[in-house]
C-alpha cells in the first residue's frame, strides 16, 4: 500500500488547527486513509477523535497510508499538511 | 467566601456572579427505541449533523468579526469550533452510535455511550488531551439536547443592569464547572468582567480565550459554583484568588493593585531594579515550557528556578534525552541573552520520582536521601540531565546556569561543580536550603559560580517545622527574623567569595519582603510569574538605602508580624501602590 513517512513540525503537534486541517483533507478522499505512529496500529485518518487520541507531538514521525485511484495525490497533500509548521 | 484556583489570565475583575450550572441530563442507561433501528439511526445522525452545522456557523461568524479588535480570540475560537464540528461527524463515533442503535439503544443514550469511549481515552491521557474533554462533552450535550428537546445552558447575552438608576451596566463574573468554547467564543468584555471555572488548566479554552480577550480568569477553582448568583465577586487573575463579600475598599484596592501591575507590565523588559538604579534581575520560577508564556507576559528577565522534576513526576523511567533537551531548549529560546537557572532533578521527600528511589525505608524523608544526595547515588541520571542541558544550550544565546538542590557542604558543592564542568556547563551553582549551607556560605560559594536561596526549605530546616503541616504555618512564615538572619549570612558569604546570591522561594513574591531581601544583600529574585509586576513596582519605588533600612528594621524585630510592620514602615510607597 502506498505510504508517506513524515515528521510533524508544528509546535502543537498533530492537535488543534493542524489536526482539523488534516482530518478535513482526509475526509475528502474517496478511499480509506490510515495514519500510524511507527510500530503502532494505524487509526482512521478521517477521525478527529482517533487522531487526537493518537497524541502525535512535535518532532514525532507518522506514517500515512492509502490505496486506490489518486492515492498518491491524497498522500502528498496529507504529508504536506502534517509536515507544515 | 474566599476561594483559590490557578490565575491564568492576569488582572483584577469584579461583578455580579453569573453561575452556569445547568447541564444536559444523562439519558437513562436502559432507554430503548421503539423498534425501527434505521429511523432511530437517522435521527441520531441528523442531530449530530445539525450540531456540526451550528458549530460551523458560529465559527464563520467569528471569522467575520464586526469588531476588528476581536480578531485574535475570533481566530482561536473559530479553530476550536471547527474541531468540535469535526468531532460531531467523526466516522468512528458514527459507527459507534449506529452499532448501539442496532442493539436497541435509544438515540440519546447511544450518542452518550458512543462519546464515552473517546471521552475516557482523552481524559486518561492527561494534559492537553484531558482538557479537550470539555469540548467533547459540549458536542455530546448539544446533540443530546437536540434529540431530547432539552434546553442548552446559555451564557448571558448582555451585562447585568446598573446597580442604581443612571449607573453603568455591570459585566458579569462568569462562573462554571467548565466553559465550552461554543459559549465563550461569542462573549465580549462588555458582558464578562472575569471568568472562574472549577475545572480546566492553563491551556483550557477558558484560559486561552480569557487571555485573548484580556479578561482576568481563574481556573481549577474548587467550590466556585457554590457562589450565590448575583453576589459581587472579586477575581484576581494573577494570584488566583476569588472572593465574595467584598467591600468598596477591597474593590478600590484591587483596582489600584491592578493599575500598579499594568504600569509595571508596561515597563516590562526595562531592568530598573531599585529606584536609584541598583540592578536586581527579576526572574520567573517555572515547572516546564507551559509556564514560559506567563513568565514573558509578566516581564520576567529570565528564569531563576526551572523545577525540572515537574516534567517527570509520575514517570516510571527517566525521560529520554531528546525529550529533556526539548523541554530545556524551550526555556532557553524564550530568553535569548538572559539567565536561565535550571535546578537538577530534586526528587525525594514530597516529590518522589519512581526512577530515583531512596535506598531504603526512610522514616523521615525530608531528612533523608533527597536532592543532590540522591543524584550522587544515581550519577547516570544526573549525567544524562546535564548532557541534555549542555546540548540544549549549545545553539542558544541564553545564559544557562545549573544548580543542585539540598546541598549542605562545600565538598558537595565541589562535586556538583565538577559534574557540570565535565559536561561543558560553564555556570554551576548550589541552592541554600539547609542552614549549614547558609552558615558556611562563603566556603560553598568558593566552589561554584552562584548561590540561590530556597526560602521554603530553608525555613523548614531552620525551624524544624514540616512545610506540609498547616498547623506549623507560623514557623514557616518567611518574615521570621531567624530566617532573615540566614538569608543575610548566605548573601554575605556569597559576596565574600564575589559570587551572586539569588532567592527563588516564595518569599521573593511578597513586594515588601522582596525589598527586604535586596536590603539583606540578595542579588536577584525569582518568583511565580504572576507576582513579578507587583514586586517590580514595589522595588522600583524604593532606593537601595531604603531597602537596607527595611532589612535592618526587620532583623531588629522579635517576631514575623513585627518584622513585617517595621519593614513596611521603611517602605512608604507600598501602601500608596496598594501592594
UniProtKB/TrEMBL annotation, chain A:
Broad class of where this protein is predominantly found: cytoplasm
Pfam families: PTS-HPr
Keyword terms, alphabetized: Cytoplasm, Phosphotransferase system
All residue ranges annotated as the HPr domain in the record: 1-85
Coiled-coil boundaries: none
InterPro entries: HPr, HPr-like, HPr-like_sf, PTS_HPr_His_P_site
Cellular component, GO, one term: cytoplasm
Compartments, as annotated in UniProt: Cytoplasm
GO biological process, one term: phosphoenolpyruvate-dependent sugar phosphotransferase system
Highest taxon above the source species: Bacteria
Gene3D superfamilies (alphabetical): HPr-like
Function: General (non sugar-specific) component of the phosphoenolpyruvate-dependent sugar phosphotransferase system (sugar PTS). This major carbohydrate active-transport system catalyzes the phosphorylation of incoming sugar substrates concomitantly with their translocation across the cell membrane. The phosphoryl group from phosphoenolpyruvate (PEP) is transferred to the phosphoryl carrier protein HPr by enzyme I. Phospho-HPr then transfers it to the PTS EIIA domain.
NCBIfam families named in the record: PTS_HPr_family
Protein name: Phosphocarrier protein HPr
Amino acid at each position: 500500500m502506498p505510504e508517506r513517512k513524515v515528521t510533524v513540525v508544528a509546535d502543537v503537534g498533530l492537535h488543534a488547527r493542524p489536526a482539523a486541517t488534516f482530518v478535513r483533507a482526509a475526509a475528502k478522499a474517496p478511499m480509506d486513509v490510515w495514519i500510524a505512529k511507527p510500530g503502532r496500529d494505524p487509526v482512521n485518518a478521517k477521525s478527529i477523535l482517533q487522531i487526537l487520541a493518537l497524541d502525535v507531538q512535535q518532532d514525532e514521525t507518522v506514517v500515512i497510508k492509502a490505496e486506490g485511484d489518486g492515492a498518491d495525490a491524497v498522500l502528498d497533500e496529507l504529508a504536506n499538511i502534517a509536515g507544515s509548521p | 467566601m474566599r476561594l483559590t484556583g490557578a490565575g491564568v489570565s492576569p488582572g483584577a475583575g469584579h461583578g455580579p456572579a453569573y453561575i452556569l450550572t445547568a447541564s444536559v441530563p444523562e439519558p437513562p442507561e436502559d432507554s430503548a427505541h421503539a423498534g425501527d433501528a434505521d429511523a432511530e439511526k437517522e435521527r441520531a445522525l441528523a442531530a449530530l449533523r445539525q450540531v456540526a452545522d451550528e458549530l460551523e456557523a458560529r465559527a464563520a461568524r467569528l471569522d467575520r468579526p464586526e469588531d476588528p479588535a476581536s480578531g485574535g480570540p475570533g481566530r482561536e475560537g473559530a479553530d476550536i469550533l471547527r474541531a468540535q464540528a469535526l468531532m460531531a461527524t467523526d466516522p468512528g463515533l458514527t459507527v459507534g452510535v449506529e452499532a448501539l442503535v442496532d442493539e436497541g439503544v435509544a438515540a440519546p443514550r447511544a450518542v452518550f455511550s458512543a462519546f464515552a469511549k473517546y471521552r475516557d481515552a482523552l481524559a486518561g491521557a492527561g494534559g492537553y488531551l484531558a482538557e479537550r474533554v470539555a469540548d467533547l462533552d459540549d458536542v455530546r450535550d448539544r446533540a443530546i439536547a437536540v434529540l431530547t428537546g432539552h434546553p442548552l445552558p446559555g451564557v448571558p447575552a448582555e451585562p447585568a443592569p446598573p446597580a442604581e438608576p443612571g449607573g453603568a451596566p455591570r459585566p458579569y463574573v462568569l462562573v462554571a464547572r467548565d466553559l465550552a468554547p461554543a459559549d465563550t467564543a461569542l462573549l465580549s468584555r462588555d458582558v464578562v468582567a472575569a471568568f472562574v471555572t472549577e475545572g480546566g488548566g492553563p491551556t483550557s479554552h477558558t484560559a486561552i480565550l480569557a487571555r485573548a480577550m484580556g479578561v482576568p480568569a481563574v481556573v481549577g477553582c474548587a467550590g466556585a459554583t457554590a457562589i450565590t448568583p448575583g453576589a459581587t465577586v472579586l477575581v484576581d487573575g494573577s494570584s488566583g484568588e476569588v472572593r465574595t463579600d467584598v467591600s468598596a475598599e477591597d474593590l478600590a484596592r484591587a483596582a489600584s493593585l491592578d493599575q500598579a501591575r499594568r504600569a509595571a507590565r508596561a515597563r516590562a523588559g526595562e531592568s530598573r531594579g531599585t529606584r536609584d538604579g541598583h540592578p536586581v534581575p527579576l526572574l520567573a520560577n517555572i515547572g516546564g515550557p507551559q509556564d514560559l508564556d506567563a513568565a514573558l507576559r509578566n516581564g520576567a528577565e529570565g528564569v531563576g528556578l526551572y523545577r525540572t522534576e515537574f516534567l517527570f513526576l509520575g514517570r516510571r523511567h527517566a525521560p529520554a534525552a531528546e525529550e529533556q533537551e526539548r523541554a530545556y531548549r524551550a526555556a532557553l529560546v524564550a530568553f535569548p541573552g538572559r539567565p536561565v537557572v535550571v535546578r537538577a532533578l530534586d526528587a525525594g521527600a514530597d516529590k518522589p520520582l519512581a526512577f530515583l528511589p531512596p535506598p531504603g525505608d526512610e522514616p523521615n524523608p525530608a531528612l533523608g536521601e533527597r536532592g543532590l544526595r540522591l543524584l550522587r547515588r544515581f550519577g547516570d541520571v544526573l549525567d544524562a540531565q546535564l548532557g541534555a542541558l549542555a546540548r540544549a544550550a549549545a545553539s542558544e544565546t541564553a545564559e544557562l546556569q545549573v544548580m543542585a538542590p539540598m546541598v549542605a557542604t562545600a565538598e558537595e558543592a565541589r562535586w556538583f561543580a565538577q559534574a557540570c564542568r565535565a559536561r561543558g556547563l560553564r555556570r554551576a551553582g548550589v541552592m541554600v536550603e539547609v542552614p549549614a549551607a547558609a552558615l558556611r556560605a562563603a566556603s560553598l560559594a568558593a566552589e561554584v559560580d552562584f548561590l540561590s536561596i530556597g526560602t521554603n526549605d530553608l525555613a523548614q530546616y531552620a525551624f524544624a517545622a514540616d512545610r506540609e503541616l498547616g498547623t506549623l504555618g507560623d514557623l514557616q512564615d518567611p518574615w521570621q527574623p531567624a530566617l532573615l538572619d540566614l538569608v543575610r549570612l548566605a548573601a554575605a558569604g556569597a559576596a565574600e567569595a564575589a559570587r551572586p546570591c539569588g532567592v527563588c522561594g516564595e518569599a521573593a513574591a511578597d513586594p515588601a519582603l522582596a525589598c527586604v531581601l535586596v536590603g539583606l544583600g540578595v542579588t536577584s529574585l525569582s518568583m511565580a510569574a504572576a507576582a513579578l509586576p507587583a514586586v517590580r513596582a514595589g522595588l522600583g519605588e524604593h532606593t537601595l538605602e531604603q531597602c537596607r533600612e527595611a532589612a535592618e528594621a526587620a532583623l531588629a524585630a522579635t517576631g514575623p508580624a513585627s518584622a513585617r510592620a517595621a519593614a513596611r514602615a521603611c517602605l512608604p510607597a507600598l501602601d500608596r501602590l496598594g501592594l
